[in-house]
Design goal:
By secondary structure, the chain is of the alpha+beta class. It has eleven helices and six strands. Strand 2 and strand 3 form a beta hairpin. Helix 3 packs across helix 5, helix 4 packs across helix 10 and helix 5 packs across helix 10.
Length: 265
């Protein structure tokens, strides 16, 4: 009886064979036509912080986005648990920001701490819109083409209940076809090196509520600024079977970090 109750309340496990089956062909990242003037700087900065976290030399990896994804896969396979992978990814994110202004607590980065104190707490709506815009401006090289939208109550329903009572202008960032997810080809890399650590980064390090809602069939991902993630969000995110083209299949298929959480031993 107890087992039946658990199965009844568990989210449906996404069929990994459907990954990308409804992706928009017009939204696939095109470096020639979609890259921005600062993309090389952002990628170099991100790669250098990843190399620090891995204890490796950046130049030892293939240049460009291909080398970046090789570093991400190495990060993903270097730790024994989801939590360790997410913690390492979060450290990489916080390391991108300067530890200034001074007088932040020792365990917090200066710029992030003071943003939380001076902006996020007293001006939550402004901070949500600002972070949505900055993410749109600075991260399309990583995620692919994005659009800013209003956050509508009907788009935020969980178990029939809307997370917001009214429209929140400019507080939704929609990634039309996530380059990161598509190149990784792995739901576990999406959840444990991107979704969970990015949510933690915004909610805890910057003080801005935000949850991410990936769609594995379309490769879309919605960043909903102003909404904090729930425990149910994480359970549902992990209830995803291995993608049909997951590079971790075969000998590595039984690694805990590449399996739905409920199947781990």
């Amino acid at each position: 009886r107890r087992a039946s109750s658990i199965l009844a309340t568990s989210p449906r496990i996404f069929d990994g064979g459907l990954a990308g089956s409804k992706a928009d062909p017009d939204a696939k990242y095109d470096k020639k036509n979609m890259s921005g003037p600062l993309d090389s700087f952002f990628m170099s900065r991100f790669r250098s912080k990843l190399a620090e976290e891995l204890g490796k030399v950046n130049e030892n990896f293939e240049p460009g986005y291909e080398g970046l994804m090789a570093m991400i896969r190495l990060l993903h396979s270097s730790y024994p648990s989801h939590e360790k992978v997410s913690d390492a990814s979060r450290r990489t994110l916080t390391g991108l920001f300067p530890d200034w202004p001074p007088f932040a607590p020792k365990d917090q980065v200066g710029l992030l701490y003071w943003f939380k104190i001076l902006f996020a707490r007293p001006f939550p709506s402004f901070s949500a819109r600002l972070n949505a815009w900055v993410t749109w401006w600075a991260a399309q090289w990583l995620m692919g083409p994005c659009v800013l939208e209003d956050l509508q109550p009907e788009h935020t329903r969980v178990n029939g209940m809307a997370k917001v009572a009214q429209t929140l202008p400019g507080q939704k960032l929609l990634v039309r076809r996530c380059r990161y997810l598509e190149e990784a080809g792995c739901a576990s890399i999406c959840v444990n090196t991107c979704k969970i650590p990015t949510q933690t980064f915004f909610n805890e390090d910057m003080g801005v509520p935000m949850r991410m809602v990936p769609d594995y069939e379309t490769y879309e991902c919605a960043f909903e600024f102003g909404i904090a993630p729930s425990a149910d969000d994480e359970v549902e995110a992990r209830a995803v079977s291995c993608f049909a083209l997951c590079p971790s299949k075969g000998a590595d298929r039984k690694r805990p970090s590449c399996m739905p959480q409920e199947n781990q031993k």
